Amino acid sequence: MKISYKWLKEYVETDLTPNELDDLLTFSGLEIEGVERVESIRGGLEHVVVAQVLTCEPHPNSDHLHVTTVDVGGDRPLDIVCGAPNVAAGQKVVCAQIGTKIYTSETEFYEIKKGKLRGAVSEGMLCAADELQLGSSHDGIMVLPDDAPVGQPAKEYFGLTEDYTLEVAITANRSDATSHIGVARDVVAVLNTRRQRCESTIRRPEIWEGEGSGEGIGVTVEEPDLCPRYSGITLENVRVADSPEWLQTRLRTVGIRPINNVVDVTNYVLMEVGQPMHAFDADKIAGGRVVVKRLPEGTPFVTLDGVERKLDSRDLMICNEEEGMCIAGVFGGEKSGVTAATRRVFLESAYFNPMSIRKTSKRHTLKTDASFRYERGCDPNITLWALRRAVRLLQEVAGASVASAIVDIYPAPIEKAEVEINYRRIFSLIGQELPKEAIRTALQSLEIEIVREDAEGMLLRIPTCKVDVTRECDVVEEIMRIYGYNNIHVDQRISSCLSFDKKPNPRRLQNIVSDLLTDNGFSEIMNNSLTKSEYYDGNPDFDPERCVQILNPLSRELNVMRQTLLYGGLECVARNLNYKILDQKMYEFGRTYVRTGCEDEGAGVTKRYCETQHLAIFMTGSATGESWRMKSEPVDFFLLKSHVMNILRRMRINMGRLQAIPAAEKYYAEGLSLVFKDSKKVLCSLGRLSKETLKKGDCRQEVFYADIDWTLLLKSYPDKEVLYAEVPKYPEVRRDLALVLEKKVTFAEIEQLALNSEKKLLKRVSLFDVYEGKGIAEGMKSYALSFVLQDKEKTLNDKQIEAVMAKLQKNLESQLGARIRG
User: What is the number of other CB atoms lying within 10 angstroms of the CB of residue 186?
Assistant: First the structure.
């Protein structure tokens, strides 16, 4: 929001410069994003002065140029070459000296420099009206009256105005600062608190003090919950025309385009006091009555910008007795606005429900100055003051006269909130004691009423413009920002205490796995927890009924909380593919959200919503990238599996507790799940995504995906610390077996059976070759396996080795139907 420096000084007496005001407001909680100089003429006529032509001679080397000497009020006359046909000795002219910037457009200019024109020295330029943006004439140089004072800066002679705008960043909780008077209130409070006495006050502008009489436009409010207060007045004899220059200049300075005097007055009051207003052509209000109500779903309505919009049944409308005229608090209608033919005006000054305005604004993607203020919460008790201020201005600039009494429908007045504060708690929150006089001055300057004060604290009555101040801590925030956060003493002492984290430390373990994946070429991604419900509609893996719906979504693309990390990751993959990044390895830690059916084991209750932490891994493209040394190979299931197994080993998961089963999720074309044998809970699933899933994510390349239940993994992390074990002194022994088995037998089954058969000496089992084809029967396959044996206490002899291998061979034959390949 833009604030005019000169306009602001009309309400508060201060000699602060714009930059000093910037510092003061920023340190009081109103961040100033920038200070910009505003000039009525681009460049501000810097280095341009009133001058007199002393001599004027024809240029010896030109048939149209003249060589002049010009008095600019300096130490000596300047030599200037001029090509204007009307230049003559004795004239008072406008001279651009060296360093002047002559603007040819909003951004382009050329600078006057000392030079030579056909051999004659020129130290400036005598200017035409259009060259200085003082007119449109270019017939010759500007000739001023004889009494024009030589040497006077041109900006003073022509009465140019100069101002500064302060760009204020208004946060959602500062609805009280959405106007010049609101910002002035903070300036006054800070200045008074620094002096610890209430010297400065806000200078309130003049308002219309009459009461009015007669019958004007009537008002009916059918939705008092959405429109708690509606004020209005009818004016007549209105002359619609261009606004006076001072009003247009004010509005342009703060970024508002002047339209006509009636509309400009409503915008002026908006920027002055923060109350949005609307002016209706009273003769276009059918039935002579304004009705505040909602219209049926899908009702067409054409707004001021000429766009036809379909109304929602929840939109509040300002209607006449036949049709809608305005989307309440958001945007006006095409038919009801003020035109050059308007003679009677109905002025609206209302207070609307902030949530209703925000939802309507979002639904129709309409962000206006009015909705910006209404959705933050305007002051419900300022509507009449703003109405009287607008009447006063319209009497001045449009010759309006009051044709009715003020209509004010306010069935349930909103009272000022009362807050009790305690000095001890205030000082505890702030961290130091403040002078009570400073607290009192800050509150009174902010127009917070002190109802009662004693040694313990105060009872305060908060003005309704401060919708966010409802608790003691809110009052403390007001005190601190006015007193100045930079004035709060920060203790230089450092205090510390011993603390013991609950083990395992989730953050530490997450960092360990993140480092592991990053070191293996993966990039971490972070996606929005909000996603679109379309991903879950008709999805066999996810129940749409279990989606956590967003009550007031920003868009249809962000209307539910995610049930899985899958689709957000696929969006990243697709975006990278669009940028021709074909080889991708990514991972994401994030929460998933579902409704109901989630048991809290610690509390023994069923929660309405369930949040679970997951780790998702995505791989696509080439595994190694292009290289002259080796052939590029695409990523595959086994590469993904190796990364998953490395994670589980790093997290010290006992592989003996896990069982591999085919993945149940339909979003896999093929995949497997690792489940705990005892609880049957799925720890992770991994596989190649199906074409249907890739189509949902708009991916045109094969993607491999793994989903690890990180919450379950943390619960399975061993409590015991890792202990040092001495490196074995005795050698390992390897023996190989070539087995023929049925295709349905998996390596995991072989490995588990072998480890269970020999728990003491067998250290590991590896698969180093798989063969199917000639010499192997249909439905069978050949596995080449290695078995590594070791005894920690002695060297194994042949007899012990053969005994172990015989036992392994016997169990493999009897339990898995294996036979030794001949």
Answer: 23
Q: What is the pLDDT of residues 45-58, one digit of tens each?
A: 888 999 999 999 99
Strand pairing category for 584-600 and 523-524: parallel
Q: What is the per-residue pLDDT across 319-354, written as a single tens digit (0 to 9) for each?
A: 999 999 999 999 998 888 899 999 999 999 999 999
Largest CA distance in the chain: 128
CA atoms of 762 and 809, how far apart (whole Å): 13
Structure tokens at 159: 């009465």
> CA 179 to CA 256: how far, in whole Å?
14
Give pLDDT tens digits for 658-702.
Answer: 888 889 999 999 888 888 877 889 999 999 999 999 998 899 899
First to last CA, the chain: 86
Residue 796 DSSP one-character state: P
Residues 6 or more apart whose Cβ sits within 8 Å of residue 64: 83, 85
Q: Could you write out the DSSP letters of every residue in 694-763?
A: HHHTT--S-EEEEEEEHHHHHHTS-SSPP---PPPSS--EEEEEEEEEETT--HHHHHHHHHHH-TTTEE
DSSP 8-state assignment for residue 250: H
What's the one-letter identity of residue 617?
Answer: I
A 10 A CB-CB count for 519 gives: 8
CB neighbours of 604 closer than 8 A, spacing ≥ 6? none
Identify residue 543 by its one-letter amino acid code.
D
| CB-based burial, 585-602: b 16+ in 10 Å, e otherwise | bbbbbbebbbbeebeeee
DSSP 191-247: HHHHHTS------PPP-------S---EEEES-TTT-SEEEEEEEES----PPPHHH
Residue 242: count of CB within 10 angstroms of its CB: 13
**Against a cut of 0.85, is the pTM above it?**
no
| 597: confidence class by pLDDT, cuts 50, 70, 90 | low
Q: How far is CA 129 from CA 141, 153, 373, 417, 596, in A?
A: 7, 16, 42, 59, 76
- Residue 604 pLDDT exceeds 60: no
Here the tokens at position 299 are: 């009702």
Confidence check: pLDDT of 601 > 50:
no
Cα Rg for the chain, rounded, in angstroms? 40
Distance from C-alpha of 822 to C-alpha of 321, rounded to nearest angstrom: 98
Residue 104 pLDDT class (50, 70, 90 cuts): confident
DSSP lists the bridge partners of residue 291 as 220, 319
DSSP string covering 348-364: EEEE--HHHHHHHHHHT
DSSP 284: G
Q: In what order do the strands lie in the sheet with 658-662?
A: 523-524, 584-600, 605-620, 703-709, 682-689, 668-676, 658-662
Contact (Cβ atoms closer than 8 angstroms) between residue 7 and residue 267: no
CA-closest candidate to residue 157, choices 170, 147, 165, 166? 147
**Which single residue is written with the structure tokens 């052509």?**
281
